[in-house]
Design brief:
heterodimer, A: 302 residues, alpha/beta, Rossmann fold, 2 domains, 7 strands, globular, B: 401 residues, seven-stranded mixed sheet, five-stranded mixed sheet, 13 helices
């Protein structure tokens, strides 16, 4: 999208909603180095949200949306669940259609955008919960990876069905007592990061959203690799504080506890060889750019 | 966004973007002897389709694979095999959300597996065209022709048309894009035919010139924003009403649903122009009127010939469009009929029920039905009509009546 297109005609400026005025004046469109540090000083792509107070998912949304490298040409695909309550507040195009079909939607969407905009970058990012990604939508999640569809899949893993009131999910830990698991879940947490690697994903990360700088890095890597090489997958722990009996201010600590080296959300990353090369290349270019900038500034000061 | 007409310019295959009305109604036609599946391919060759997504299921597999050949020849933007009909219809939706002209085909159990998608397509106002080559959906497994699945599609909000012949199919596919992509319609179309009878038999079909094609779809004429980030990404709602239990939420959903059906109503004027009416009537003053859709119409025509040899006059109403339902047309066409005979290829008789709910004195409506892949010899229709007229007939062998 051309940045010109979101500008408001001067005669109309004062009658536009203040959120939109803000979006035009203070959003970070067109700035590839945008990131989580812009939060608080620029217009975020998410305004208020309707999640529970202190929900880690709301943190995850803010970090991810701040980290998209190309929001003016990014379309997001969601699914049913708590995330579908947030997407209507998000200032980029997003699609909700059915529960679990998000990777099918994204496959068709990415191909349509490739046909319609040859030579232009249009990023597609899927963001859905663990029920959508691993249970009802597993077939379409995996098949999109088998086909090497060029988009990023992000799973908000809260280890249960939160929006429907805390039922067992495939990513729930073994033994956890929940609705529909009245005597405790009897099988292990599905190992989707490993399955993702074996299914052809070029970049897989399993972590929590406790550190915004880490989220910025993995989101950017995932999108760049998906754009150039093939599918990428991020599994992010966004605990449902309500359903695990925590208070609003305890979400961050819950994530820190879950990311200890022996815990299930200890940072794990897989990156394929071509993806490694791409990231190394991009890092080198960035270094060069910064060095040149430094030199230029030094020249100006001299 | 297109700022000037593309009519008269060429696509990458050298086909001229034709004025669709000229292409369909005035341009010279070439007769060809083709199977229904080959006809589907030839229509798509001229339809300027951006994305087609395929999945094997009898009896549409051949057509879906032939369109793959078109992709290999460069006539289609993208083409792939999805993993199931549920996924394929989601992939079609994704492509249509992204502003592509989208085409797919399915049949029987595939239609049923994908069913959750169809009200979503209509609700999202995606003008996807889906060919349905009807077959049995029951257990035990059957691949034979049976039109039961159409009755499920009729309540999804999609436009539903029922082709009788390969010629209908060819013309209606191309015309279908023109109707569904109108800004005041913008709904998906289920273009149905009876599997095998139409897909796997050869027929003479008059094709439009191969060097002419439909102009491309313009997603910026849609009544809903195209999800391509080419128009301003306003936040859609301050307070998402998706799952709220309040009056505003109910009112929003109610008006949205009503708008889908209102859009289907608005398709009438376009469909009447392109298809020359939602129904086709022959001799409506006869006491006995055959009312049917699909290949049941062809069988009715054969029965008409047999009955006329015996001096029994019969009229025929061919229903081309099932959604929007041709309510007024059917009331008018049947007003003088004493016996309304509705032959059908399904066990429930959904068409007869629909007609009974439309006309006065609905006890006039009866009809022979076959299902599970049985053919409907014209003799069955003849026997039924004679029975309705009180003429004694010998029981037909094997029918147990």
């Amino acid at each position: 999208m051309s940045l010109e297109r979101i500008k408001i005609a001067p005669e109309m400026f004062d009658i536009m909603p203040p959120e939109y005025q803000d979006l035009v004046q203070k959003a970070t469109y067109g700035n590839e180095s945008r990131g989580w540090k812009d939060i608080g000083t620029s217009k975020e792509l998410i305004e208020e949200h309707s999640l529970c107070a202190g929900c880690p998912e709301s943190m995850a949304f803010r970090y991810i949306l701040a980290s998209l490298p190309n929001p003016e040409d990014t379309v997001m695909v969601g699914s049913t669940g708590c995330t579908s309550l947030v997407f209507p507040h998000v200032g980029i195009h997003n699609i909700h259609s059915l529960f679990g079909n998000q990777n099918a939607i994204a496959s068709g969407l990415k191909r349509a955008l490739t046909v319609r905009f040859p030579g232009r970058v249009k990023d597609v990012v899927v963001l859905a919960g663990d029920g959508a990604t691993v249970d009802i939508g597993l077939d379409m999640t995996l098949q999109a990876w088998f086909r090497q569809e060029k988009f990023t899949t992000i799973c908000f893993d809260n280890e249960l069905y939160a929006n429907t009131g805390g039922q067992e999910s495939g990513l729930m830990q073994k033994g956890f007592v929940a609705k529909m698991a009245p005597i405790g879940k009897h099988f292990e947490k599905v190992r989707l990061p490993e399955i993702a690697r074996e299914s052809g994903c070029h970049y897989v990360v399993n972590c929590t959203v406790s550190k915004p700088n880490l989220i910025e890095k993995v989101v950017k890597n995932a999108i760049y690799i998906a754009r150039e090489i093939g599918p990428t997958y991020l599994q992010l722990y966004t605990p449902c504080i309500l359903e695990i009996g925590k208070n609003s201010m305890e979400g961050l600590q819950e994530m820190r506890d879950a990311e200890k080296p022996t815990e299930r959300f200890a940072y794990r990353e897989y990156i394929s060889e071509p993806a490694k090369e791409l990231i190394a290349e991009m890092t080198a270019k960035e270094k060069e750019r910064k060095a040149a900038l430094k030199k230029q500034l030094a020249g100006q000061n001299a | 966004m297109a700022t000037q007409s593309v009519i008269g310019t060429k696509n990458k295959k050298g086909q001229v973007f034709a004025d669709p009305w000229h292409m369909m109604n005035e341009a010279p036609r070439t007769p060809c002897f083709f199977t229904g599946s080959e006809v589907i391919k030839e229509a798509i060759r001229r339809a300027n389709v951006d994305v087609m997504i395929a999945y094997p299921i009898t009896p549409q597999s051949e057509a879906a694979a032939l369109i793959g050949e078109l992709f290999a020849e460069g006539y289609i933007g993208d083409y792939f095999r999805g993993e199931s009909e549920f996924a394929v219809m989601g992939q079609c939706a994704g492509a249509a959300f992204g502003g592509a002209r989208v085409f797919t085909t399915t049949a029987g159990p595939g239609t049923m597996r994908a069913m959750e998608n169809f009200p979503m397509w209509a609700g999202a106002r995606l003008p996807i065209q889906m060919i349905v080559t009807c077959r049995g959906i029951n257990s035990p497994l059957s691949i034979q022709p049976d039109t039961l699945e159409i009755s499920y599609l009729m309540n999804t909000g999609m436009l539903v048309w029922h082709a009788e012949s390969a010629q209908d199919f060819y013309d209606w596919m191309l015309k279908g894009f023109m109707v569904t992509e109108e800004p005041d319609v913008h709904l998906p179309l289920a273009l149905c035919c009876d599997g095998f009878f139409v897909t796997h038999t050869k027929d003479m079909v008059n094709l439009t010139p191969v060097d002419m094609c439909l102009p491309p779809y313009d997603p910026y004429r849609a009544p809903v924003p195209c999800m391509d980030m080419e128009c301003p990404p306003v936040r859609m709602m301050r307070d998402p009403f998706v799952m709220k239990s309040n009056y505003i939420s109910y009112a929003t959903h109610a008006s949205w649903q009503q708008e889908i059906w209102a859009a289907a109503e608005r398709s009438r004027k376009h469909t009447i122009a392109w298809l020359d009416g939602l129904i086709e009537v022959e001799n409506p003053d006869a006491d006995v009127l055959l009312v049917a859709s699909g290949t049941a119409v062809s069988q009715g025509r054969e029965a008409k010939v047999l009955l006329e040899e015996e001096g029994i006059e019969v009229g025929i109403v061919k229903i081309k469009v099932l959604r929007p339902w041709p309510h007024e047309e059917i009331r008018e066409a049947t007003k003088n009929a004493k016996h309304i005979i509705v032959p059908e290829f399904n066990v429930t008789g959904w068409l007869a029920k629909e007609i009974r709910a439309t006309i006065p004195n609905s006890e006039r409506v009866t009809g022979p039905r076959v299902c599970g892949g049985m053919t409907m010899p014209p003799e069955i229709i003849v026997e039924h009509i004679k029975g309705a007229l009180g003429i004694k007939v010998a029981a037909m062998a094997g029918r147990g009546s």
